[in-house]
Amino acid sequence: MRNAITPLPAALRAIRLDSLDMFRHYLQTLAFSLAISAVLYFTSSPDKPYEVPMVYSLCIGTVSWAIIDFGRHLIAPSAESGWPSGLSGMVLTAFGIVGGFLAGTAAADAWFGWSSWDQSPAQLRTTWVFSLLAGVAVCYYFYTQGRSSYLHGKMQEAERQATEARLKLLETQLEPHMLFNTLANLRALIATDPAAALDMLDRMIAYLRATLGASRTAEHPLAAEFERLRDYLELISVRMGPRLRYTLDLPPELAAQPVPTLLLQPLVENSIKHGLEPKVEGGSVTVRARRQGAWLQLEVADTGVGPGGERPSGGSGFGQTQVRERLAAAYGPSATMEFIAPDDGGTRTLLTFPAKT
Amino acid sequence: MNPTPTALLAEDEPLLAQALRAELARAWPELAIAATVGDGASAVAQSLALKPDVLFFDIRMPGLSGLEAAAELADAWAPGTPFPALVFVTAYDQYAVQAFEAQAVDYVLKPVQAARLQKTVSKVREVLARRSPDAIDMEATLGHTMKQLRHLLEAGQPAAPTGGPLRMVQVSVGSSIRMVPVDEVVFFEAADKYVRVLTAGHEYLIRTPLKELLPQLDPNAFWQVHRGTVVRTSAIDSVLRDDQGKLSLTLHGRPEKLAVSRLYAHLFRPM
C-alpha cells in the first residue's frame, strides 16, 4: 500500500483524475477522424483506397488529441471550460492542430512507406486547409462542450443550494422544541379552555401553512406578513403568558406593499429565542413599518437580554444571514440591514429597501 | 417523609404549570404543592426555603436551566436533610432524553399524560418511602444525584469545535485588541454578561460566554470547578476542606480563593 500514499505531482494527479473523461474525448476524436476521412474520401480522392485518408485522419486526430488533452491539464485548465484560458489556450490549440498535422502525417507516411511532402503544392495546400478547418471545428466543439457542462453543473449547484436554504428555513421554523411546546400548551388548553384551544389551533394552522408555503411564493403584501407575525406571536404569547408583550405597528397606507414572504419571521424568532425567553422577567417585541420618501423601513426591536447574553444551543446567526440574503436577492445592493445592540440590552434590526409606489 | 408530602414545580410556561398541577392533583391527591415558580433562580431559592420532598423541574427555563438549577441546589443543600426526589419535565430535548434513558433520574415528557405521570408518582413514592433518616445514607443519595447531574450536564454541552485548543484570548483594551496567551490565564470567571480573564498581573473582560469558551480549552489544562469558574490546573496550589466538607482552592499567582462546587468535588481526591 505504500504506492497509494506516495504523493503524485499536481499535474499528474489532475490527469489521473480525468482519465475517464480523456478516454471519452479520445473516442469522440476517433469518431470525428473517421467522419473527416469519409468526407475526404468522397470529395477529393476516390481513386485511392479508403485506407489512405482513414489512416491519415486517425493519426492526425490521435496526435492532436494527445497534445491538447494532456497539454491542457499540464497548463492548469480553467474551471469554466476545462481549457486553459486566454492566450495559452489558443497557443495550445494551434500547437495541437499544427503538431497533429505534422506528426500525424509523418506517422501515416511511415505506415504506407511514402512521403506526402512530395505531392504538388496545390494538393498540399488543400490537405493543409482541410485539416486546419477540421481541427478548429473539433476543438471548438470540445471547448463549447466543456463550457456547457460547466454551466450545467453550476446551475445544478445553484438549485441544490436554493433547496438546501429552503429546507434549513423550514427546519428552523418547525423547530421541534417550539412545535412540541406549542402542542403541549394546546393539549392543556383543550381541557381547561376549549375556545382558547380552538383559537390557538387556528393560529397554528395559519402559521404552519405560511411556513410551508413560504418556499413556494416569493412575495406577499405587508399586511399578510404582519398577520403571520401576529399568528406566531400569539402562539408564543400563550406559552410565555404575561412575560411577553408585543406591538405590531403597520400604517394602513403601507398594507399593500409587497415584501418577500416571512422576511421578518426569523428576526422576530431571534428576539423571542435569544432575547426574551432567556430573560427572567420577559419583555416586549415591537415590529414597525415606516415609509421614508422612496424607502420602506421595517424594524424589529426587543427588550431582551441582547447579544451578550447567554445563547441557547442553535443560535448560529442563521436567521440574520438568511434575512440579509433574501433582502439582497429581492432588492439588490440598494437594500440595507442594520443590527443595533444597545449597551443596556435588547436588539434592534432595521431593514431599508425601495418602496413600490 | 412528612405526613403530607410537598412538591415544588418549576415551569416557565403558565399553562403547562397549571396542567401539571391539575394532573398531579389527580395522580397524587395527598401531594401538596408548596410553590410554583417560573425561572431557575427562584426554583433554587424556593427549594432551599421550603425544603419540599419532590421537585418537578422544567429543563428549559429562563435564567438557569433545570439541570443547572438542580446542580446549584444540590451544591447549596445543607447536609442532614434529605435531598428531594428530582423529576425533570421536558417538551423535547434530545440530549436530556438520551441521558435520562441511560440514567435513572425520572423524567416526564410534556404534554404530561396521566398514565405516564402515574408511573412517575409511584416511582417517587417508592424513593420517598425507602428514605431513611440516616445521615450517611443521605450523603450517598446526594452523591448519586450529583453523578447523574454531571452526566446530564455533560450530555448537553456543545461539541468542541475542531481546530485544536484555544491558544490566545483576544481582549479589547480601550480601542486596541490585546492577545493574551491562554497559558498565562490563571482562571476564567463568569460575571454577568462577561467573562473575567485573570492572569498573574492583569484582569480583562471578554464577551464570549463561559459555555462557549469551555469547549475550546484543553480539558487537561483547564478544569471547571464551579458553574462560573474554570481554572488552569497547573495554577492550583492547594485544596482546602472546611468543616462543612466544602472544598476551596488556593492559587499560584493570584490571591483569590476559589470555591469548588460539589458537582466538581470528585476532581480532587488524594492519589
Q: What can you tell me about this protein's structure?
A:
- The complex is a heterodimer of chains A (357) and B (271).
- In chain A, 62% of the residues lie in helices and 12% in strands.
- Chain A is α+β, with helices and mostly antiparallel strands and 357 residues long.
- Chain A has helices at residues 2-5, 10-17, 19-43, 51-74, 86-112, 121-173, 176-192, 194-213, 222-240, 265-276, 318-331, and strands at 219-221, 244-249, 258-260, 283-292, 295-302, 336-340, 347-354.
- Chain B has 271 residues and is of the alpha/beta class.
- Helices cover 32% and strands 29% of the residues of chain B.
- Chain B has a five-stranded parallel sheet with strand order 2-1-3-4-5, with helices on both faces. In chain B, strands 10-9-8-12-11 form a five-stranded antiparallel sheet, with no helix packed on it.
- In chain B, strand 14 (247-251) and strand 15 (257-260) form a beta hairpin.
- Chain B is globular.
- The two termini of chain B are 39 Å apart.
- Classes of the chains: A alpha+beta (357), B alpha/beta (271).
- The A-B interface holds A 176-177, 179-181, 183-185, 187-189, 191-192, 238-243, 277-280, 282, 305-306, 308-313 and B 12-16, 18-19, 22, 38-39, 41-42, 60, 62-63, 91-93, 110-111, 156, 158, 193-194, 207, 209, 211-212.
